[in-house]
């Protein structure tokens, strides 16, 4: 699109000469005077300068281009704000559910102290332990949104001591193939979940264990007596 001044001048002069010759022929046939001559300027404006001036004039007459750029910038800013707010909301919601599940699970809470209970090593523990028995333990599991696995060990405890139990602490565990515990937890179920357990009565027991991974070698589950107290 760029053309030198000399070439542009020659082209314009040629076009103007042809126009004058055609006009002269038409005037001669009609008996009119010759068409007056005009001279092309010796230093015409280059074509590239003409395009530049037209572009500048167009930009001055159309200020909306600047407005459109401003609107585009505002849209990008709004989009960035929305993304940041969405990420922060996701983190807050995830943290809320995490602490809620930890609170309901209670896996990290220490067991309540069963004062005055009969524990392992006591002659009474050896005498009555075999008379407080559990049915075969069962377990179900669930995967939480946080990625870990939660297991709930369930069983039924039966009181064959001929005495009323006013306190009972049990321990649930999940063991590997060597019998070593992967996770275990002790829970006081009497009197926290039930006031007492009369003789020859039963009571359902459930203990939640948290924090398992898919790679854990969970081979078996156990439920056992840790301590007890008579009324």
Task: Explain this structure.
β3 (138-143) and β4 form a beta hairpin. The chain is an alpha+beta fold and 231 residues long. Strands 1-8-5-6 form a 4-stranded antiparallel β-sheet, with no helix packed on it. Strands 2, 3, 4 and 7 form a 4-stranded antiparallel β-sheet that branches. It is rod-shaped. The protein has helices spanning 5-30, 47-61, 64-105, 123-128, and strands spanning 118-119, 132-134, 138-143, 149-159, 165-175, 181-190, 202-212, 220-230. It is built from 4 helices and 8 strands; from the N terminus they run αααβαβββββββ. Residues 42-49 and 103-111 have low confidence and may be disordered. The longest helix is centred in the middle third of the chain and has 42 residues, at 64-105.
List the helices and strands and how they pair.
Blueprint: H1 5-30, H2 47-61, H3 64-105, E1 118-119, H4 123-128, E2 132-134, E3 138-143, E4 149-159, E5 165-175, E6 181-190, E7 202-212, E8 220-230
Gist of the model:
With 231 residues, the chain is of the alpha+beta class. Helix content is 39%, strand content 28%.
Number of helices: 4
Instruction: Note the gap between the termini.
Output: 107 Å
Estimate the mean pLDDT confidence. Answer: 78
As laid out across the biggest beta sheet, the strand order is 1-8-5-6
The biggest beta sheet reads:
4 strands, antiparallel
Give the strand tally.
Answer: 8
Radius of gyration using CA atoms only: 48 Å
